[in-house]
Amino acid sequence: MHRMRAAIAVLATIILIAVSQVRSTPPPPAAPAPASSPVALPSPNVAGTTSLEETLARRRSVRSFSPRQLTAGEVGQLLWAAQGTTDEQGHRTAPSAGASYPLELYALTAAGVFRYLPADHALRLVRAADARPELGAAALGQESVASAPLVLVITGVVARTAARYGSRAERYVWLEAGHAAQNVLLQAVALGLGAVPVGAFDDGRVREILGAPADEAPLYVIPVGHPAP
Ligand SMILES: Cc1cc2nc3c(=O)[nH]c(=O)nc-3n(C[C@H](O)[C@H](O)[C@H](O)COP(=O)(O)O)c2cc1C
Fold first, then answer.
1. 6: CA distance to ligand 1 center in Å?
2. Whose CA is nearest to atom 18 of ligand 1?
3. Of all helices (H) and strands (E), which one includes residue 73?
4. Which residues of the chain have pLDDT under 70?
5. Domain with 142 in it: what CATH number?
6. For residue range 168-215, what is the model confidence (pLDDT) as tens digits?
7. How many domains does the chain have?
8. Nearest residue CA, atom 23 of ligand 1?
9. Do the domain assignments include residue 106?
10. Domain that holds residue 101
11. Predicted TM-score of the model (pTM)
12. Phi, psi (deg, nearest 5) at residue 22
């Protein structure tokens, strides 16, 4: 009986210590916000009816846009044209030196800044803020960038290509951005939209707006929209 009382007392003491420790332990630091889940885009159309020749003949830089928003299908089609995958191995619409795929692609709309995920044909939210006015300021005040309903930004990570091609990599990445950009410009024409390739911007500011790491170089900014009447 005496032993049992002693055992109960010890148990009670352990529980009290445990409870007091739990009370005095500061709450754990807040866990970092989980990365937003990807938002799937409508499947791309791979059987358009406008011929390549007509698309080439009609392409012209467009810098004034109507305020009409683009549909999710149009946004997805433009992103796919730039960097979408076209086979089971993950090869893309644009060629890439050694299939090293150094490009990243961002879409800026009124809803926020999104990164394109080629393998999933989806968007991941990077920033829930309309950054187009900021991006326009970073592009030396170009109104086409601030006012377009959709602005695509192509960046490049040279290290991905340098692993195989060394000092040739920077050239290759710039060339590749040109391939992707031309795909967007032609796709815009085929969709009845207008676009302009913009190379004049402050690299550091654009990187900040995208929340991109230091090794990701902004290469091209492409405002897209319905041409102003
Ligand atoms: C590398 C490069 C950078 C460019 N940068 C800009 C730019 O910052 N702003 C702009 O309005 N247009 C820019 N353009 C578009 C050219 O001004 C345009 O292509 C040229 O005037 C020919 O007109 P087109 O595109 O209608 O054929 C750029 C084009 C290239 C190829």
1. 87
2. 61
3. helix 72-83
4. 1-35
5. 3.40.109.10
6. 999 999 999 999 999 999 999 999 999 999 999 999 999 999 999 999
7. 1
8. 61
9. yes
10. 39-225
11. 0.86
12. -60, -45
